[in-house]
Write the structure tokens for this entry.
Amino acid sequence: MTEPSPKVSAETGRDLRLAIGVFDSGVGGLSVLRVLRQHLPHATLLYVADSGHAPYGEKSEAFITGRSLAIADFLLSQGAELLVVACNTATATSVQALRQRHPHLPIVGIEPGVKPAVAASVARKVGVLATPGTLGSERFAQLIEQHAGDAQILPQPCPGLAKAIETGRLDTPALRELIAGFCQPLKQAGVDTVVLGCTHYPFVAPLIAEAMGPGGQLIDTSDAVARQTVRLARRALSSAERLEGEPSTGRTRLWTSGDVAALRHFCTPWMADAATVEPLPPGQTAN
């Protein structure tokens, strides 16, 4: 049996070198960025935290789409060759508009992991923690219709949770109380599997697990997003007739429409490599 070449491995993108643009309403997408770096150590990662307009889950669809289009244009101006929408709400409301504007750009969206959660649930009861915007979207309704099967899906809106995580204070009495309140209905209903339906939530996964109690499991789709990004990155390189192995810095650059110092402080514990953090340029800081 022939051994596969590391450069065409279906599981990793260790030898892929290109620029990948990533954005979220704030710091939540750093949970995805961290996994992308593990899968694509030589890629240049370009990240925008739109913290000046967070959280998206409490904004109108028109506003979110406007921000998504503007940020995508900025990332492309910085050399992005592939786009990752590391925000469940922005994916639900805006990914189709992004694909219509950029029909030749590989775009990866993120959505609540209902399908893997249903497969993992023994009790056939799945809770979904997410923003009101995500849970109220047509895309989420389609996910339920397609993947719920015989399982009971219990959506739990979490207004204010993403905003609390944005502060970077990830273990306070107030935050614990907020999470406990959101988890209590799921716990009472006998849910054994909880979907983290916002990219902010993995940063407080230990508190969510504690609130749900023993025996539960949490579903985070960051790794699945990274694997899909690797697949699209390889396809993009192939279609452009570029060699995997061209010079690349493997740098991480971050911009924010909010507080630069806050983003730098927040990302430090999570980033494996040095990253530059800058303010989003004028013209990108307001819709």
Notes: The chain has two domains: 6-110+222-279, 114-219. Residues 6-110+222-279 form a domain with the Rossmann fold fold (CATH 3.40.50.1860).
